[in-house]
Amino acid sequence: MVCYCFVLLAGALFLFWDGQKPSEGAYVFIDIVVSLVPPMIFGTTEPFFTLVKKVPARSLSNFLSIFSILSFIVIQTSFHLLAYFFCIQQPWYEPFVFDRSKVHIPPPTHVATAVLSVNCMSYVIAAVVFSPGPPFRKSITSNKLYLSVVIMEFLIVSYVTLYPADFIRRYINFKEAPKFEFHAFLFVLSLLNFVISYLWEVFFVQHFLFNRVQPWLRSLRGPIHLYEKIEKDLSHNPKWPPVGNPLDSPCGVPPPSPDYDPDTALMRFSASNKAAARSRFGAGETDEMSQVEMPSLSFSTFRGSRKK
Question: Which first-to-last residue range defines the signal peptide (predicted)?
Answer without folding.
Answer: 1-25
